[in-house]
Amino acid sequence: MEDKLLVYRLKAGSEDALKRIYEKYENYLFTIAVNLLHDNAAAEDIIQDVFMKFLKAIDNFKLRKNLKSYLATCTANKARDLLRKQKNQNSNENLHEKDMASNSKNPIQLIMQTEMLKKLAHALRNLPYEQREAVILRQQADMKFKAIAVLQNVSIKTAQSRYRYGLDKLRSLLNSEVQK
Amino acid sequence: MKPAENIKNLIKNLQYKTTRETHNRILNNLQKTLAESQKTKPATQTNIWRIIMKSKITKLAAAAVIIVAVGLTLFLLDLSTTPAYAIEQTIKAHHSVRYLHIKDFKAGENEPKQFWVEFDNDGQVKNIRLDFPKWAGGGDGAKVVVWKENKAQIWFKKKKSFVTVWDKTVAAQFLKMIEELDPKRAVERLYEREKQGKVKIEIDEPSDKTEPIVVTATYLPESSTPGKQGVLFVNQATKLVTAIEFYQLKDGEYKYSGRMEFYDYNKPIDARMFVLDSEIPPDAMRVDQTTQDVGLLQEQLGDKEIAIEVVRQFFQALIAKDYAKAGRLFGGIPASKIQEIFAEFDVVRIISISEPIPYPIPGVGGFKVPCKIEIERDGVKSVEPYGLAVRPVYGQPERWNIHGGI
Predict the structure, then answer these.
(1) Which of A163, B152, B257, B271 measures 20 to 30 Å from A98, CA to CA?
(2) Per CATH, which fold does A104-180 belong to?
(3) Tell me, what's the ipTM?
């Protein structure tokens, strides 16, 4: 409901609506982009591109599903485009680990979880891109397998398999990390 | 670290935030772009008025047949949950509709269907214009319909045919639509539905009075149309609806199915919009069923008997080279067109006319009348089988005629 109203207001030129939409989804999209690319600078460029494209097309924009998944799909597509152009991805040295958010409340848990998240981020980097994309879009973007399959241009079963293999591999990578 | 059975939750926690600098930079860029786009935009219409309705016009079938079905869905408001915005305000604003221009968008299509309606002082429909883009024209392609005084004129652009027929169907359906639009009745229906627990209404009224009120009407499982949802945008100043978006529940989600936008409420529509003649190219075929006796009166004959009689008289007219009569029996098309169609051969005699069979295409109605005709082409005689399509004249059920191709 709120998104429909915001889109409607944005169509009417409301700067406030633009700000609210941007602030509502900025970090959500940034998280998806970073986890897909492991490159903060590229992720920043992507979210700017996504919002800019959305804004420029707003007059003819029709909110068919929900804005959140629309923007997430745009972000994933942009990430794919970028990867096609840059086969060799930069390392994630510039990851803003200090910006990692956590829901933990206990300071000790926070430290432990932050450490685990770092390992998880590292493990994600080692996943094949298609699997990483399926995992991130499913778990972080809450996208349905059907939508992921469309985005990846594969069958739903393949998308599900990629997701499952991705999770298995993450578990395996994290477990082996622990055993070292 | 334990085995990562909770890995899904862990992934959800793998979140990042933009830096303050990045946030400000991107937002500034977006705001600049928005400001620039507003400079180049035409001024928005200030006098946009709305009504609450949904209509769906089905295809106008070929050969001067109009089938108009108006399906209405009203999405109304719940007074008990609206301390500030009251539905009566919208109703009052809707009470004096004189002119209306509606754009009806369908998901996946860019060009909308468009309707212009003019009402007289008594609230009755006076003029209607319907513009169907190609996607909405069924097998006819793009077409335009203008209705007034129980006559409908249809301009089939692809076929270059301009047909005038008697019609009370379109009028009746639009009148029904207007009744549905009557705010008083609409309120009654709302109250009924609300009491019956069939509709759930949610209202979002922004504090900024320049922004529209957004009303979501969700039809509950107890309603006759469960799974439907309409989102109305209501102008806070005029209390009129500016647009309605339609959604249908599918796979657990409300999926967008279309949008109607309402324009020019009470802004007089140029009278020329309701006159098609000037838009028709000179080489178009013109058929006017309202100024001639098309087909034959059925009188005491049964349906099959009249179908046979129409076919018999049609071929007799061709044998006699009475193309005007043949044209009248054939949907009222001009004699010159009949002559053109039968220029290549002469009809010599009727060999046989068989028992009519129901027309094989569903929805067309009437009969297919098999027959054998002797013709002469370049001095050579032959017997040819034909199957003529015969049914009541559109808008004149007491008369029967040939329609479609031979």
Answers:
(1) A163
(2) Arc Repressor Mutant, subunit A (1.10.10)
(3) 0.80
